Amino acid sequence: xxxxxxAVSFRGAVKVFGEVRAVDGVDLEIARGGTVAxxxxxxxxxxxxxxxxxxxxxxxxxxxxxxxxxxERAVRAGLVGAMLQEARAVPRVRVAELVAxxxxxxxxxxPVARVLELAxxxxxAGRRVDRLSGGQAQRVRCAVALAGNPALLVLDExxxxxDVEARHAFWDAMRASxxxxxxxxxxxxxxxxxxxxxxxxxxxxxxxxxxxxxxxxLRHAAGGSLVAFxxxxxxxxxxxxxxxxxxxxxxxxxxxxxxxxxxATVVALAGLGAVRGLEVAPASLDEAFLALTAGRxxxxxxxxxxx
Length: 307
Prior knowledge:
Radius of gyration: 23 Å
Low-confidence stretches: 297-307
Mean pLDDT: 88
Shape: elongated
CATH architecture of the largest domain: 3-Layer(aba) Sandwich
Helix content: 25-40%
Number of strands: 13
CATH topology of the largest domain: Rossmann fold
């Protein structure tokens, strides 16, 4: 089962709750190794997709596989570690005891000391789990996910409740895991984290994958750059027809052009004498996300078809 090239495979996966198609015909392949971010608004279908992936729910149509087999089989084989938002603290159990217990359920676990080090909680080994702060408890959940040395790590909002320093330490550990051949799949509302740490970004909206690519590819799909300038009382006629321009937005006396070719756009603006207060900046992933999910349901553009 572990020899297949794909860690995760969705083929026409559908999950329906009443009249809501929470996952609506998802086709997706995630290769082994690397880090993949799953983005989506609340209600986009992220949690349902993760539940299908972990075998907590069964698809109503289509298939979901991990390492070439059913998710339950991969979980039982110790190939999957998960860090979920719904986890509750175990009363009267100390951190090292909990990690050792979980590690003991796997066929080839990491040493407990190594797990505590990776999760940045070596100093909490003797503390009771139910007496930790929110950020400390979140790092313990990370340790539990890592304990079995899984081939696939599934992380649902992993840095919630972590401060800036703890976030950096967490992602250092995740990068080390990916370099070791582990596949890391995480959902997040922190788009800057997806941009900084994911090799691949998936955007889910309305139960469908509406964009799939690197952060740079998604920014380009939404309009690669922003060119802004002061109108100075002039009109906006013709601005949307300038080279590279995808869209025009006016805020007060300032025009904002979304463009695929900022150099050509700026040259054209210079020809019009419209360079007062000129600003050129690349699109952020936040802006790309908003553009890619704008107007749904009804269809957002795709950065690249999911494969």
